Amino acid sequence: MNYRQAYLKAFENECIELIVHAYDVATSEKKYQTNWLENDFSELLGYYVNESQLSLKKGITCKTENKLFIEKENQIKGYADKLPRIDFVLFKIWKKQRFHYYMEAKRLKEKDSDLKRAYIDEGMERFISKKYPIGCMLGYLLKGKTDETVKGINSLLQKDERGAEILISKNHKLSNAYFESNHVVIGTLKHLILDLTLLSN
Predict the structure, then answer these.
(1) Are 15 and 175 in contact (CB under 8 A)?
(2) At the N or C end, where does the chain have fewer CB atoms within 10 A?
(3) DSSP state letter for 33
(4) What is the pLDDT at residue 113?
(5) Contacts of range 84-89, beta carbons closer than 8 Å, 24 or more positions apart
(6) Which residues of the chain have pLDDT under 50?
(7) What is the pLDDT of residues 85-135, one digit of tens each?
(8) Other CB atoms within 10 Å distance of the CB of residue 134
């Protein structure tokens, strides 16, 4: 591993730490509602990331609903409105280089198959197909239990004959709900399931 790869790994861990810290603040202050839309949660978490002393200490800034520029030979009028958007991009400048880390978020409920299907098709798949740069998935759990919800996601993957790509629980010093899935093209995709059910329990 060269120094750039080592730095990227450290930067990724810092970004995950910042989003977990923002989640901790959100669940502590409880200034959200479980009927919110996906972007509502993302804006709140992005705000908490940027307001934290931790982000200042690390020199990392968070942007939400960020457009991903796709370079083509002929850009036509209105192309910018059709660019794909990702929920979070966190970035910092180090040694005259800009580093980015991307996160895509989806709402989840234990007994809602449509949301779990969207997590796969409109979340994971965008990383796997390289439509999005490598980053991680965030699941906003609004109802039910984390383990059962992940079992549901895995059942759908197995139904799609993608059993090798299921989410596997891993130990992580910052999160008790951390998972990884493995994919031929991109390797490991990381997943954080953020339990936002506290208001309804």
Answers:
(1) no
(2) C
(3) -
(4) 97
(5) 84/126, 84/131, 84/132, 86/126, 86/132, 86/135, 87/38, 87/39, 87/42, 87/138, 88/19, 88/42, 88/45, 88/46, 88/62, 88/63, 88/64, 88/138, 89/62, 89/63
(6) 201
(7) 899 999 998 878 889 999 999 999 999 999 999 999 999 999 999 999 889
(8) 16
Q: Under a CB-based contact definition with an 8 Å cutoff, are residues 42 and 105 in contact?
A: yes
DSSP state of 111: T
3-state secondary structure of 62: strand
User: To which residue do tokens 């999160």 refer?
Assistant: 175
**Identity of residue 131:** K
User: What does pTM read for this prediction?
Assistant: 0.92
CA torsion sign for 87, 141, 119, 20 is: positive
Question: Which tokens sit at 160?
Answer: 């799609």
Tokens coding 14? 């810092």
Domain boundaries, the chain: 3-200
Phi-psi region of 96 (alpha: psi -120 to 50; beta: other; left: phi over 0): left
